[in-house]
Known about the structure:
globular; alpha/beta; three-stranded antiparallel β-sheet; TIM Barrel; nine-stranded mixed β-sheet; binds iron/sulfur cluster; 2 domains; 19% strand; 15 helices; Arc Repressor Mutant, subunit A
Amino acid sequence: MPHPFSxxxxxxxxxxxxFCAAKCHYCDFVAMQDHHNFARQYHEALCNEIRSFVASRxxxxxxxIKTIFLGGGTPSxxxxxxxxxxxxxxxxxxxxxxxxxxxxxxxxxxxxxxxxGTWRDVGINRLSVGVQVLDDAILAKLNRPQKKAEVLExxxxxxxxxxxxxxxxxxxxxxxxxxxxxxxVETTLSWPLKHTSLYFLTIHENTPLYHGVKAGTITIPxxxxxLAQYAWTVQRYAQAGLAQYEISNFAVPGFESIHNRGYWDRxxxxxxxxxxxxYDGTYRCANKKKLTGYLQHFSTPTAxxxxxxxxxxxxTHEQKILEELMLGLRQRTGVGLHRMVYLCPLxxxxxxxxxxxxxxxxxxxEASETHIRLTPKGQIFENEVVVQLSGxxxxxxxxxxxxxx
Length: 405
Ligand code: SF4
């Protein structure tokens, strides 16, 4: 029997597990080591936050769920009995019968058949695996206690349980030369992957990596070397059947990440756990990051409405346009012109058309009747292209207020 609330658009949920075996020196995520004693308390607070969410929006009770993404931190460390409890709760509050994708971020090492079996049995159908680079010494220097042998073993066993596998790699890590990088890429391509994510190293302020680079004790590869490795990798992925569908993401056609696509298409999503972000089409909120406060705030099950926002902002019309351009251009399909005009009629104006035509003539953009998208050259200068295009949309936005996205 269809659920009485099945008319609600299916929801996307993000669940944050902040604990890690160690804190990697390049990481600025909401993640912490040596806090595993808090696992049960944190799990209970998470469950209470989810209950409170449904209490605050009674129409979401029984709503269909499109995707769930368990991120972190290292959510593959979520204790299995607690993970089962979490999914029992989700099934009691929402309709997961047609959920398309449930992803778990995994750091390889220490997994038993019990892990793989439990993940599969609770409904997880996609593993997003942190590989980064296959070199023990380089990872050890970055405080990441991950061994190549563990990663290889992981990819031997995982496909027996869950076939939709993604490998995340970081390009530009200190100490990675062409030989090391090519070995990483060729090894990953020997696995039965459906998806890869390829991220450029970002040096975040106040990380040990940042201080090491600043002090000159850590040297990062030259930009030209990294860009050459990137170009080679994109080509190798294409040869191996992994098509680029977003600047950092590649997939066997049909295995693009549904959840992440939702972010790039600016669909609503709801996040739970410390630091987790939510977006409802109008407001973007992010939970506070403090663990002890969160544990206290959601310490008891309650039907009472509680939030834990550290920030909340109502997106302006200009912000929405900018996001539409930024997130659309990151995707291979590009920005849909009809959608753009719906959001902002100035996308039909002469100034916008002139900027678009100039960027096409200069080789940064490709344009069709329906879409604009970045060329490979444009991908390298994505931010600049977005700035120029949005400059073509300056003017009177009063007519843009009617069509709301
Ligand atoms: S495992 Fe991931 S989340 Fe945890 S510290 Fe390392 S990079 Fe950050």
